């Protein structure tokens, strides 16, 4: 394990290892400690998938993007009605 605390927060992070099979447990433990919206193991940081929600951590980024998270973030629920013709009141 690492002896130094991870205080960095961000949009994306990557952890690289030469021997993924041997280092997988350590890489996964490290990835869980990294505070970022996406953490790749042996992969580029410029990749995301449209169906997955994505957002930064701490002061990084602006909200959540991608998939259902983007729709919820950028949508404000409103109720609009239209009266067509005279209204009938039950009296």
Automatic annotation (TrEMBL):
SUPFAM superfamilies in UniProt: ALDH-like (SSF53720)
Keywords attached to this entry: NAD
Keyword NAD: yes
One Gene Ontology term of the molecular function aspect: oxidoreductase activity, acting on the aldehyde or oxo group of donors, NAD or NADP as acceptor
Pfam families attached to this UniProt entry: Aldedh
NAD in keyword set: yes
Record-annotated Aldehyde dehydrogenase domain positions: 10-80
InterPro entries, sorted: Ald_DH/histidinol_DH, Ald_DH_C, Aldehyde_DH_dom
Family: Belongs to the aldehyde dehydrogenase family.
Protein name (database record): Aldehyde dehydrogenase domain-containing protein
Organism of provenance: Pseudomonas veronii 1YdBTEX2
